Q: What sequence folds into this?
């Protein structure tokens, strides 16, 4: 299991996930840079993702939706705020409407994904910060901790495929 730690801090409004992958940093980065590979791990196994737009350039907007086992679609978006390939990606992540526009009133997280060499593998640190403790609590109540763990735990298998 790649996830080694999950820390929630309501005072700092952060959710931090640490994971270790049995692949070099460049390979892990490649998974996030390729939307077809990312679709295999973005979201829990029962909610596969489809990226409609994907461009890891600063200022770009990526859009995606996840499909439930019943066929319902849940949209989301990223706004890329920083790229230091292959070590660091920063972006805002939010909920989207059915036509992949920003969903008003829903939490937006400000994310820092950092990848560093660790032995023969990669240590990944995913930090999501929310605008308020209420926003963080809202996504925790929606199951983001369990969903993120199950999504990230798929990455090692995707890296060797």
A:
């Amino acid at each position: 299991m790649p996830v080694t730690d999950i820390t929630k801090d309501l005072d700092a409004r952060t959710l931090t996930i640490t994971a270790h992958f049995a692949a070099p940093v460049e390979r892990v980065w490649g998974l996030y840079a390729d939307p077809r590979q990312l679709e295999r791990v973005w979201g829990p196994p029962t909610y596969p993702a489809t990226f409609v737009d994907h461009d890891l350039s600063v200022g770009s907007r990526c859009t995606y939706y996840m499909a439930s086992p019943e066929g319902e679609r849940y949209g989301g978006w990223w706004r890329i705020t920083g790229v230091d390939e292959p070590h660091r990606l920063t972006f805002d992540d939010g909920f989207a409407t059915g036509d992949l526009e920003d969903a008003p009133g829903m939490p937006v997280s400000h994310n820092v994904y950092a990848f560093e060499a660790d032995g023969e593998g990669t240590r990944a640190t995913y930090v999501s910060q929310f605008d308020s403790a209420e926003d963080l609590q809202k996504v925790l109540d929606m199951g983001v901790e369990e969903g993120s763990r199950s999504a990230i735990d798929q990455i090692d298998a995707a890296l060797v495929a």
